[in-house]
């Protein structure tokens, strides 16, 4: 009768253990792949949302800076406050990341006395002392933001509006 050596028995036990581990690892690998397949679309959707919000924030900053630049140009003097074309050009040149047809610039002059409400600047303003005439420039910019994708429940184009008002130096 042939008696197996103890070292042969250890080799067979090791082989059996390795085969069991290999089967266990294969099942875990399949489970990990299923989990990855479920999580990756959610992570990509989250990433696209973050990118879209960042683009919207950047665009709204551009629109706001364009309105501020137009108001700063108009607030330099009474002559520049009346120069609507110059105000529009100053706002347009500051908002260079915005395409021309999607940016609307509307400058308005507002006049009044210190204690009264401001109105249009058509007629000369007479103020009672110690009040004095004031002139303000208000620049409204409207830009159209186009999103990368169409989202359910949201419009494809959003209007971003910024209003800046500054007192004209006299």
Task: Give the secondary structure arrangement, pairings included.
Blueprint: H1 6-74, H2 78-82, H3 84-94, E1 103-112, E2 134-146, E3 157-167
Antiparallel strand pairs: 1-2, 2-3
Helix pairs in contact: 1-3
A few lines on this structure:
The protein has 170 residues and is α+β, with helices and mostly antiparallel strands. Helices cover 50% and strands 20% of the residues.
Care to describe what's here?
The termini are far apart. The protein has helices at residues 6-74, 78-82, 84-94; strands at residues 103-112, 134-146, 157-167. It is rod-shaped and about 130 Å long. The chain has one domain (7-167). With 170 residues, it is of the alpha+beta class.
Major beta sheet summary: 3 strands, antiparallel
Please give the count of helices. 3
**Which geometry do the CA atoms define?**
rod-shaped
Annotation, overall tally of beta strands: 3
Instruction: Give the neighbour order of strands across the main sheet.
Output: 1-2-3
Contiguous runs where pLDDT drops below 50 for at least 5 residues? none
Order of helices and strands: HHHEEE
Give a quick set of tags describing it.
rod-shaped; 50% helix; 170 residues; 20% strand
